[in-house]
Specification:
Helix 3 crosses helix 4 and helix 3 packs across helix 9. The chain has 338 residues and is an alpha/beta fold. The protein contains ten helices and 17 strands. The chain is globular. Strand 13, helix 7 and strand 14 form a beta-alpha-beta unit. Strands 3, 4, 5, 8, 9, 16 and 17 form a seven-stranded mixed sheet that branches. Strands 12-11-10-13-14-15 form a six-stranded parallel sheet, sandwiched between helices. A two-stranded antiparallel sheet has the order 1-2. It folds into two domains: 165 residues, Medium-chain alcohol dehydrogenases, catalytic domain (Quinone Oxidoreductase, Chain A, domain 1, Alpha-Beta Complex), CATH 3.90.180.10; 134 residues, Rossmann fold (3-Layer(aba) Sandwich). Bound molecules: zinc ion (2 copies). The site of one zinc ion has 8 residues, from helix 2.
């Protein structure tokens, strides 16, 4: 099959022929229909040791079941539409059985090194982690389930109440997924801080009640929108200095939810956070239940993330689109239609 293969840091992905995947016990093979490019892919592929040479990335996918391995429950059949939590757990431990596969000690992540991902014609998935998609659900929405589940998980962890005010730092796909959920769950003000004009206008389309440019005036800009400091701040950028800024502007006893992947050391002044009794909560990934909830809402038309998708490319156009996303201009979520 054709796949977009990671070469080495500093080189674009290469479209190559690689062996077709075959399903092992309790595994399925999907014919990939659509797969999103994620900031994590960009980050991992620009970091030495981030992903091994020869890796096929792509963890936000939807496709059609084409092969069913031994032992797979008979509610899965060839021809069905599906997506999967991009991980394969042992399927036996308490975490796997409760749907919290990301905590399984035997976990193999799909698309970031251990298991090949879906920037390819076919991808192998675990039946335990796979969820069916309704036939009527467009493939692009199927590929958005994963990033939406990331946003949902963070918003659930924040444990907000209707009527509260939130600040979201960053108008990339994850920041926008968070703002979409915040609006869904009834927050009063959802303000997205984002320097790029195109992403600010997307934020408004996706549920933000206001946008700000960010920078040194962030606290004042938020106050002007919401009439007070935020009840929660979602940090969805991952650059050094932002945690300190969040701590400075947060309301006493409020929460800061940290989602941005920052690999550099970060300096904060603990006394400022201590004086306000802030709750600094780091979050990662999702639970299988976040996938099924997202699928239900997409299928019933109650959640509409379509505006998040700004560009679509074929597998052949993926390497160039992938490199272009390193310095995004008008792009938000770029989907690969295989
Ligand atoms: Zn992702
Ligand atoms: Zn397990």
């Amino acid at each position: 099959m054709k796949a977009a293969v990671f070469q080495e840091v500093g080189h674009p992905l290469a479209i190559q022929d690689v062996p077709d995947p075959t399903p092992g016990e309790m595994e399925l093979v999907l014919r990939v229909k659509c797969c999103g490019i994620c900031g994590t892919d960009l980050h991992a592929s620009s970091t030495q040791g981030g992903v091994p040479d020869g890796c096929v990335m792509g963890h936000e996918f939807a496709g059609e079941i084409v092969e069913v391995g031994k032992g797979v429950p008979d509610h899965f059949e060839v021809g069905q539409h599906a997506t999967s939590v991009p991980a394969m757990g042992c399927g036996r431990c308490g975490d796997c059985l409760s749907g919290d596969v990301m905590n399984c000690s035997k976990i193999k992540i799909i698309g970031l090194g251990r298991e090949p991902g879906a920037f390819a014609e076919y991808v192998r998935v675990g039946s335990y982690e796979t969820l069916r998609l309704p036939d009527s659900l467009p493939w692009d929405l199927g590929a958005l389930v994963e990033p939406l589940a990331v946003g949902l998980h963070a918003v659930k962890v924040a444990d907000l109440k209707p009527g509260q005010n939130a600040l979201v730092l960053g108008g990339g796909p994850i920041g926008l997924a968070v703002s979409l959920w915040l609006r869904f769950f009834g927050l009063r003000s959802v303000v997205v801080s984002e320097p790029t004009e195109a992403r600010r206008s997307l934020a408004i389309q996706l549920g933000a009640t206001g946008t700000v440019l960010g920078g040194d005036d962030l606290a004042e800009e938020f106050y002007a929108h919401a009439g007070g400091p935020p009840d929660v701040v979602f940090e969805c950028v991952g650059l050094p200095g932002l945690l300190g800024q969040c701590i400075e502007l947060a309301r006493p006893r409020s929460k800061i939810i940290v989602m941005g992947l920052c690999m550099a050391p970060e300096t904060i002044v603990p006394a400022v956070a201590l004086a306000k009794e802030l709750n600094l909560q780091f979050v990662l990934a999702y639970h299988k239940e976040d996938f099924s909830f997202t699928i239900d809402l997409l299928a019933s038309g109650r959640l509409n993330p379509e505006a998040m998708v700004t560009h679509r490319v074929g597998l052949g156009g993926l390497p160039a689109a992938f490199e272009a996303l390193r310095n995004p201009t008008t792009q938000c979520k770029v989907l690969v239609e295989v």
